[in-house]
Description:
Layout (H helix, E strand, L loop, with lengths): L5 E6 L2 E2 L4 E7 L8 E6 L2 E2 L5 E4 L2 E5 L5 E9 L3 E2 L1 E2 L2 E4 L16 H4 L2 H7 L18 H7 L14 H8 L5 H28 L1 H24 L5 H42 L1 H15 L3 H15 L5 H25 L6 H13 L6 H51 L4 H4 L3 E6 L3 E6 L5 E5 L2 E3 L1
Parallel strand pairs: 1-10, 2-11
Antiparallel strand pairs: 1-3, 3-7, 4-5, 4-8, 6-7, 8-9, 8-11, 12-13, 13-14, 14-15
Amino acid sequence: MAELPRVTGLSPNQGPPGTRITIRGQNLGINIHDLIGLTICGCNCLSWAEWKSPMKILCRTGPGVGKGDIIVTTRSGGEGTCTVTFRGYMEKIGPTEESAIWIDEPDLIEGKDKLHMQKPRDALGYDHVLEIPSTEDELEELYPDGTGELTSENFIAAWYLLEYHRNTSFGDLKEGLTHLRHEVAKRKRGPIAFVKRNINTFIECHDTLHAVHQMLLQSESQSEGGSITDRLERIVEEAGVTADRLFANVLHRKDRADATRNALGVLQRFRFLFNLPRTIERNIEHEEYEVVITGYENAKALFQGTEVQAFKRVLEEVESLVNKCRDKLKMKLEENPSTLSERKRLIRYMVQLGCESNPAWDCLLSQHRWIVRLIEKCKADYQPQKDDHEDGEAATHVRAHALSFTSSGSKGSGSESHSPHRMLSFSGGSSLGRTGSGTSVFCCLAGDCMI
């Protein structure tokens, strides 16, 4: 048979229930299955034991109070011995502190009067401190804006020490400082450390709840009218139906109010986009095209490619108005006559609005057509005047020759006077005919006859 287990070291050697300790010694078990028993201060702690080696075991303490031995029992060596002791104690719990065990309120506070007389727990860990009420006026003079209350925002440590530890020795203050640091570190570890420290209490609560559940199941099987939980479920469902009937209208109005509030929030947040169609339409009427271009470019930069249907509809309306603006600019560009600066300005607007065609080339074509129409009109207006002027000059020339011929014929020889018919040729392709009696004269000019 192996040697008896022997515990020779312990760290820490005191603490409340749930304290994690390290047990050192000899022959503490061959393996984890060899360890069959572990008691600390008379409490069985095998459930929380963690075997590491034949010389080391980790464990959490039970609810034992006072000094006691640590006894290790193994299959191979039996029940062991111990040369060290562990002191277990229950922490004093205040009304606002966490606790893993149930504390009756009368143990803390007895009656309403005692509630006001209850003093807070000493920060340095001393149960009995010497209070000197006579120094309160002096402390107020020293610290007019401070107080010695631990929970106050204006807490001053010097006030607290002078009020509660005026006669405490320096050594005791150093121990109190160590206790205070320990308390701060314990709070920093948070709820996980609290659960680990009190794991046995949680297990006991679990066992108690399991026992209560078994009792409920047993009572349900013996009771009439079905399961207790089923009856509770029906009662809860009926309460839910009643609540829905009572508050249906209120909840409906609340939903509508929330929807309206959300819609107003969207309108307020994106008011630039929702006001843009009206703004563009007004600026087009006033021919403020630069403002139209700025708003259109901002809308494309912020909302192009959006998946929100409301934004898509607004952008479609904006695009339709911009197309009308493009058409209006194109018509103004084709108006003639116009100055060069005006045409350059219109071309720049059309380029910024993203016209598909080339506005500069369209302007040149429009100017060309306008010039051609002017030339054709000028030609059509000038040609009839020219023809009438030429016909008038020819007729005047013929009459002048005819008059000259008539006067020379009256002074000629007799043989000429007896001629029955005479034709005279003039330069320019005209001819003059005269009868024998000299009373009839006709003239032919360029195929036209004049009598």
